[in-house]
């Protein structure tokens, strides 16, 4: 990843929050919390993961697919690469 150190620290902090949320889900399941509460926790984790995925995917597109050495590629080739990337990671 081509992120600067400040951005890397933000991403690590985000994944640590997600880890804490997953730990909360585990506790909720072991203590028999209400299904609706567990579902809300799961939705929160999914949102966090999706947001993190979008951030890393955006970084990849900006720094790898649209880099100077790739900028000479035909636009349709870059578009196909982006489509393939999105399909691979957002299934």
From TrEMBL:
A GO molecular function held by the record: metal ion binding
Residue runs in coiled coils: none
Database matches in Gene3D superfamilies: Metal-sensitive repressor, helix protomer
UniProt xrefs under CDD domains: RcnR-FrmR-like_DUF156
An annotated GO BP: negative regulation of DNA-templated transcription
InterPro entries, per the entry: Metal_Tscrpt_repr (IPR003735), Metal_Tscrpt_repr_sf (IPR038390)
Pfam families: Trns_repr_metal
Similarity annotation: Belongs to the FrmR/RcnR family.
Protein name: DNA-binding transcriptional regulator, FrmR family
Protein species of origin: Terriglobus roseus (strain DSM 18391 / NRRL B-41598 / KBS 63)
């Amino acid at each position: 990843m081509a992120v600067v150190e400040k951005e890397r620290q933000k991403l690590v902090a985000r994944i640590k929050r997600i880890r804490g949320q997953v730990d909360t889900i585990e506790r909720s399941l072991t203590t028999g919390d209400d299904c609706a509460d567990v579902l809300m926790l799961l939705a929160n984790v999914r949102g966090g993961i999706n947001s993190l995925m979008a951030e890393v995917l955006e970084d990849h597109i900006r720094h790898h697919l649209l880099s100077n050495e790739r900028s000479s590629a035909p636009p349709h080739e870059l578009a196909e690469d982006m489509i393939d990337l999105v399909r691979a990671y957002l299934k």
